[in-house]
User: What shape does this take?
Amino acid sequence: MPDVWTTNPEKLRNFLHECGATCGVEGRVLEGRDPQWTCIYDSKGWLRDVYIHHWSEMFESPIFMAPIIMSAGLGILVGLLWGRRFWRKS
Assistant: This one.
């Protein structure tokens, strides 16, 4: 059940539809997803849900923002400590 972030969701949905996926259906695993951007793909007996999102929606999700904020904070902290250690006036 992957969430797929892409710059061109229409093109990806059309590609999945041409490959045999059923698009425009309710998500079976995660409810509350937009049915217009949900596709189900049958791969050798395994039914898979694919949820298509535009890449700009990635930054609205708290799941992705928390690591970015923590990495930025850690980078600032390391930069301050590095500068304090090596660029001290003697």
